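Narrative of activities, Objective 1.

The group set out to show that a structural description can be obtained from nothing but a protein's sequence at a throughput compatible with the screening campaign. Below is one input-output pair from the validation batch, recorded exactly as produced.
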Amino acid sequence: MKAFLRKICSPVLNIFEKDNGPYVYKSMSRKILIAMGLMFAGIAAIVITYIINNAAYGYFLPAVVFSGVALVSLIVGLLGNERAVAKIWGNK
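Output recorded for this entry:
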């Protein structure tokens, strides 16, 4: 199942996994990345709910940004290798 999901998400994962340089990986980085992705997903859900209930279409851009950050964070956190997690934090 994980191999199938990695294949589907390969366009996002390739961005973070393609470098060959040295990196510093800490196991806590992955946990923090997943927690951050869940927090951004929660914020996106709240904003989307607000848009639907109040027809406030001016909040569409923040909803897209929060959803995008959540999606990338969760994909890299759950499916990415150690290099991808280290690269998203900027560790070298």
